[in-house]
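Incident review: delayed structure delivery

Summary: a single-chain prediction request sat in the queue longer than the usual turnaround. Root cause was a stuck worker, restarted by the on-call engineer. No data loss occurred. The affected request and its eventual output are reproduced below so the record is complete for anyone auditing the incident later.

Affected input:
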Amino acid sequence: MKKYTALFFLFFCISYFVFSQNKFVVQNKQQSDKIKFKLINNLIIIPVEVNGVTLSFLLDTGVSKPIIFNFLNVSDTLKIKDTESIFLRGLGEGDPIEALKSRNNVFKVGDAIKLKQELYAVYNINLNLSPKLGFPVHGIIGFDLFEDLVVQINYSQQIIILTEPEKFEYKSCRGCEHFGLVFHNKKPYIKGIVEINNKNIPVKLLIDSGSSDALWLFEDSSIGVTSGSKFFEDFLGHGLAGSVYGKRSKVQSFSLKRFKLKNVNVSFPESKSIVFAQRIENRNGSLSGNILKRFNIIFNYKQRTLTLKKNKFFNESFGYNKSGIELAHDGSRLIKIVDNSKSRERGFPSDDKTQSSSLVRIKNNYRYVLMPAYVIVELREKSPAKIAGLKVGDLILSINGKDTKQFSLQQINQRFYDDAGKRIKLKVDRDGQIMTFSFFLKQLF
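Output delivered after worker restart:
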């Protein structure tokens, strides 16, 4: 009898292992795992191991399959195999982009493992998110992880909990609201209400955790979704098919059942950039990171439900970049600093604010350090910075008298969201010439 029991147990383990190859499985006794993430510009960055290599991925509910970006030598570093060339289409005005589709990759997120994961390797330099965020981001992951596991996102504590659906239990929560989800092309949609010109308008929105904005709405005068007269033209971001431009404005309020947010940022993308997005039945836009971060969230794709509970970010006001400057991390610059240390040893200083600082050499009482370089990559027309004479390509050396080596990209950008009337003084390097500019932040509406 013991022999048959052992054989049965062995057969069960093998069957479960084979079955689990095509899905994420949390491989620990609790069948649940907690993972820390970084919240950068309203976006969630998590560690993901791909074929034994640990990378940083954007957690994006708006993508169906994982995407690896062009700056990795995927064929060598990740040893991907079973490949074929395909074309992907997304937001933007350009043509579909070429990608390499690969099967049978091993993905590991915390204790959650999937042995046969498809991925796309994209060789479009514009899709490199690292310069825009000032932090290494190697790819995007979405539907496959959400489909297999219950995903709890605690924006307050910057923690994600992955749980096997059969093991997950909802706790009593008086402050929670529950929503039904609808799926199109493996992407989740939710219904809300937007208030424009004192009119409450029901809208169907893609839940897009991969966008740092608050709301995107597709203009439709037949239902009252319009930008009105108070807006400004701006660069909205990069899609798979190129840059997306449009209008930025405000709506009076946005509601998800009893949760109501007032004076909410909204973007109205140009129609030619969203032709394919508008083909989704009754879609009116997207619900993105600047609203999602105001809740702690439970995604349960198996039950097609979403649970929201407001957190410490809920009452934060919605603001805009009042300078007109879009910055990116663009390589490094050499900085000479006073060396007060008694030890003359060489090494690599650790400083989270400067990401990848590297010590080059020590000479006399100085040392030379490579620090991140922050460059203007977009400049809004008629903005205070543009009028002051700043140009795309200017390297920012200091802001209000403080060297930018002291700050992360996110900290510098935050200065441009200060109160209207605040003076900003920038020292820049323009093709080797050091120049100084100053301007005042301007209220947009």
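Verification: Residues 163 and 169 are 10 Å apart (CA to CA).
Action items: add queue-age alerting; document worker restart procedure.
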